[in-house]
Amino acid sequence: MADQDAQRIAGAVPVLVATFDDTGAVDEDSLRRQIDFCVEAGSDAIAFGMGTESHMLTDPERERMWTTAARQLDGGVPLIAATAHASREGTIALTQLALDCGADGAMVNPAPLGGDELVSLFRDLSDQVALPLMIQDAGGNAPADVLLRAVREAPRVNSLKLESPGAPDKIGRVVAGLADVPGRDVTVVGGSNGNLLLEEFDRGAVGTLPHPAIIDAFRAVCDLYSAGDASAAGELYYCVILPLSRLTAAGAGNAIWLHKELFRRAGILNSAHCRIAAGPMPDWVMEAIWRHLHATETRIGRLLRA
Length: 306
Hints:
Elements: E1 11-12, H1 28-40, E2 46-47, H2 59-73, E3 79-82, H3 88-101, E4 105-108, H4 115-128, E5 133-137, H5 144-153, E6 157-162, H6 167-178, E7 187-190, H7 197-202, E8 207-208, H8 215-226, H9 230-250, H10 255-265, H11 283-294, H12 299-305
Parallel strand pairs: 1-8, 2-3, 3-4, 4-5, 5-6, 6-7
């Protein structure tokens, strides 16, 4: 586990890709190399989420991957595990499992729960599992006032990841409401692979959880914005991050497969095998992606040029 002083969730936090071999079995060595890449690229924390195909893992596989990650990080940066489950009981059990595996926090998407049921879930989690909680607002699109109620009634909530439609506006309303929660440093971060990162920063977000391959570019944008240089942050975003996002969309949006393939070609992963329905992008898209990354000073770009 990371030191308690390092528990503030902010900055660039990559959502790892799940590492499998060509048969679909968990590949721990590839996972360790991916974690090392992300840490060396400046990640402020490491996360397992939907981008890790978490919903496609068995419980023993979750335990194996979370434990491997916690041991590899060895407290260097916080580890966040996605512990959402279809039932309240399952969510509590997975959150306890994350704690037992050495995670430093749990990211919980409460959907489809809303209103009082959403608040009750986080209150129960806070009461029953001694682990910091991140509220993930994605498919459920919870109103800002409900999210703020959950923060007030669940003292272990230390962050919110807001990525539902209209996220920047909701981020602004939640950040304003957090001013009325004294004595707690609850942060708000964005998601959706940083597609609205600059707008989220302008509304008060302090970080983002994107896919992992260009996490050093995200870290640089976060650092520049935090230092007050929004102009330089925007220039870097538009020059390095946005082109990859646009090319991903042009290739039918198979971002999980793409980041696995980037890591495979860089010698980090042994396979780009996915459990979700995801296949290769068109050749012309991949050629454009190689040209773009080769022209950047990102860590993945340097590895691909080697």
